[in-house]
Amino acid sequence: MSEEVTYELTTDEVRHIAALTRLGLSDDEVEMMRGQLSSILRVFESLQQVDTEGVEPTGHTTEVRTVLRDDSAAESLQREGILENAPDSEAGYVKVRPIFG
Amino acid sequence: MVNSGVDSGTGLTGLTAHEAQALLSSGAVSSVELTEAVLARVDQVEPQIHSYITVTRERAFEAAVAADEARSAGNVSGPLTGIPVMVKDNLSTEGVATTAGSRMLLNYTPPYDAHVVEQLRAGGAVIIGKGNLDEFAMGSSTEHSAFGATNNPWDIDRVPGGSSGGPAAGVAASECFISLGSDTGGSIRQPAALCGIVGMKPTYGLVSRYGLIAFGSSLDQVGPFARDVRDSADTLSVISGHDRRDSTSLDAPAQDFSSSLTGDISGMKLGVPREYLVDGMEPGVKAAFEKSLETLEGLGATLEEVSLPLTDQALAVYYIIAPSEASANLARYDGFKYGNAVNDVPTAWDVMDQTREQGFGPEVKRRILIGAYALSAGYYDAYYKKAQQVRTLIRREFAQTFEKFDALVTPTSPTVAFKSGEKMDDPVAMYLSDVCTIPVNIAGLPAISVPGGMSEGLPVGLQLIGPQMGDGTVLRVAHAYEQATEWHKLKPGI
Prior knowledge:
The complex is a heterodimer of chains A (101) and B (494).
Chain A: H1 11-20, H2 27-44, H3 79-83, E1 89-90, E2 93-94
Antiparallel strand pairs in A: 1-2
Chain B: H1 17-26, H2 31-49, E1 52-55, H3 57-72, E2 84-88, H4 115-122, E3 126-131, H5 165-172, E4 178-182, H6 189-195, E5 198-201, E6 222-226, H7 229-239, E7 269-273, H8 283-298, E8 302-306, H9 314-329, H10 348-359, H11 362-375, H12 381-401, E9 407-411, H13 427-431, H14 438-443, E10 447-455, E11 458-465, H15 471-483
Parallel strand pairs in B: 2-3, 2-4, 7-8, 7-9
Antiparallel strand pairs in B: 1-3, 4-6, 5-6, 5-10, 9-11, 10-11
Helix pairs in contact in B: 2-3, 7-15, 9-11, 9-12
């Protein structure tokens, strides 16, 4: 492994991950998460004792390969039912707030 | 026989589905009458239990009328025709709110049914409503629901387990005959154990995940809750089978799992993995477990202690893989396409930040953060890749064990139902509640929890684990055990 593994997060690290995942957190939440996430990370520490040299990782457990289907036209969900759930829509499209402020 | 008024869960509403089906077949009762009795029971106990997020009364009666009409026309399609059922509220239901227990999906109405919901409808089942859960199925107590906790019917000051606490408590309190839950790390088996009913997690891929709101996609599996093993087998027969809309759906022919219930387990080899008798296991749970082993031996099975040393790593593997997958799956909640968006802000970025801040509860936030951390540059090899490699070793360990044994026997949970609020501020203590169920999801195996004793007046669960596609085997052992005991007949006094 290339980086040093730590089991204690800093508040800056919590803020960094929160920004990556676009999760707004209050200052109190950042401090609470720092402690709780660190206690969860310490659960992971024992894994480093397991010898995994040359072991293939498992993505999922059944031996399913890429599944292909026939390229044929079929009914899909109706636009109305989908757009009814959108917070905002116009002319048959989902409408979002500006990307550039 | 017409049952008017409330029957306290011991009369009509307390029957198994196959007993109720016999009354429907003989004409002694109609599906409309059965539905009326169940809804009266729901009205009676919901103020204390709160197992439903949504009750769809009118739709239920429409389905019951249709089931009665089909029966009079001679078109009875299966074991669930006319039977009142509940589905967990992370299973999509066309035209009926589906919240996943989250504020994020407060106003979300799916335009389609989950595959298992289609299968229930095609089988003539009467869907009474949607069951409560920990938000996005993340939790072990159902206290992390944005719509309020569910209480255990055996003691309303205790949790029903989770995340499928609503579907488990609903069956235990006679608010439905059958329910469907989802199990990512124990979310069917642990609440089944804590509520004194049967809960099964099928082999990964046996039941389609289409329309199940995703949590940890390589671990999630839909399965039944019921009052006995026969109902579990019948329900699994209805909901399983290939579905091309789920690319991990196994391409296996449909099966009738009731044919596995032979009642005979003599000569079967059962392994008892010593690592599952963890530190912190309650003495009452251990005592009940040892009694259950004697029962299985009395039925002619051969029991032998076995060691699966990597069991001790399963919790760490799970709490890296499940949150990593969750952090990716929950990226879709951006406040643009659906969901309870904060939209009166200047830019799309503000919409995302604030929608997610306000829409997700603390446990979901914890898991998104820990997952994103485990996947982030510099830590990927140490956490995510390492966990996936140990996952391979855990699969191998199980595979080698099943060369020698037909099934494994363990307790389902190290404790009986715990007090509400007890573990809410200590995430790791909450996670330990699933220590006996998590290895099964990591390896994609089938497992079932059946009522296996009582401790301090509360139910204890017995877990049977089988090899991949050994669903019939675990049902067979569970059924033989159940028929030799009386535990499944006990009902809470609510």
